[in-house]
Amino acid sequence: MAGRRPGAPTLEEVAAHAGVGRGTVSRVINNAAGVKESTRQAVQRAIEELGYVPNLAARSLAARRADAVALVLTEPDWRQFAEPFFSEIVRSLGDALADTGMQLMLTLVRSQTERQRFLEYARGGRVDGVLLMSVHADDRLPDMLAEARVPTVLMGRRSGDEYVSYVDADNVGGARHAVSHLLKQGRTAIATITGPLDMYAAQCRLRGYQDALAMAGHKTSRSWVAESDFSEESGRLAMTELLERHPELDAVLAASDTTAAGALHALRAAGRRVPEDVAVIGFDDFPLAQRTEPPLTTVRQPLEQMGRAMIKLLLEEMEEQSVAWRHVILRTELVVRQSS
């Protein structure tokens, strides 16, 4: 074991400075219960005054902990990592982990070989838990981690029958609310641009669109639906396709703000005014939604709350694996701006 730096204070010196025993200092450092608040404060003052730095490597080894959480991105298309969704959720997860003393490790897993390699890495105790995002319907990595008893939480879910712990937004309700808003505005020819339909979130947003139209007595047809990959360029191409099929359309729900931004470009190129000729609604409420021309009406996903909820579930799984999976679905909110 490497020796300490010359002059670095020891645990014993902190204990003497605070007037407590060595075990009490250890309990304070490890946030253990059973320490009086006045004693805890005295130890923390001693740590600050002496400049004591705990040996985190030794603590982790003794506790069989890595003090690290892996955020695994399974999206095979690297372009998706440039989309606002990824940066927003990484920020929210990092903020939620900030006070835990744990590191957030970003890992890309895009092939079966990489899945197996990561599974062995996680089973080997290199990370304490796994957060998964951008998981498609046929991805078995969540099942592999669950079978290996690695604490795991998904952002979103692969299907309505998902059993691995997850945190999701109410995608059906959010899309239903958006289309109901368009109907109340007098729009009658409403199209939608979906995300990739092998992702459950995209399926749910399509279902919400269909539900709202059906409840209002409108027939739905596949010709009013165009698929995208959540990117701006795919939104532009999908909007162009919809205009060719249905020149009479007067509203569109896009499955992401980025896709909606592409739709706005296509509408402008076609000489359609927004919202006078065509109303547009996005999904997510990224900062981008306020910078488009005009600013986007959008369905706000509570990404910060989702990040906190994912970390909370993961820490609970790491502390004590429950007999039940934990499933959390958070409310969305329609934010009305000038595009509708």
Describe this structure in words.
Helices cover 44% and strands 16% of the residues. The protein has 340 residues and is α/β, with parallel strands linked by helices. The strands form two sheets. The chain has a six-stranded parallel β-sheet with strand order 2-1-3-4-5-11, with helices on both faces. The chain has a six-stranded mixed β-sheet with strand order 7-6-8-9-10-12, sandwiched between helices. The longest helix is centred in the last third of the chain and has 17 residues, at 303-319. Mean pLDDT is 88; it is low at 1-6.
Which descriptors apply to this entry?
single chain; about 350 residues; alpha/beta; six-stranded parallel β-sheet; 13 helices; 12 strands; elongated; disordered N terminus
Q: How would you characterize the largest beta sheet?
A: 6 strands, parallel
Strand arrangement within the widest β-sheet reads: 2-1-3-4-5-11
Number of strands: 12
Mean pLDDT: 88
Principal-axes shape call: elongated
State the helix count: 13
- As residue ranges, the low-confidence spans are 1-6
Instruction: Specify the oligomeric state.
Output: single chain
Tell me the series of helices and strands, N- to C-terminal. HHHHEHEHEHEEHEHEHEHEHEHEE
Rg over alpha carbons: 25 Å
- Termini separation: 65 Å
Q: Helix share of residues?
A: 40-55%
* Beta-strand percent range: 15-25%
Give the structural class: alpha/beta
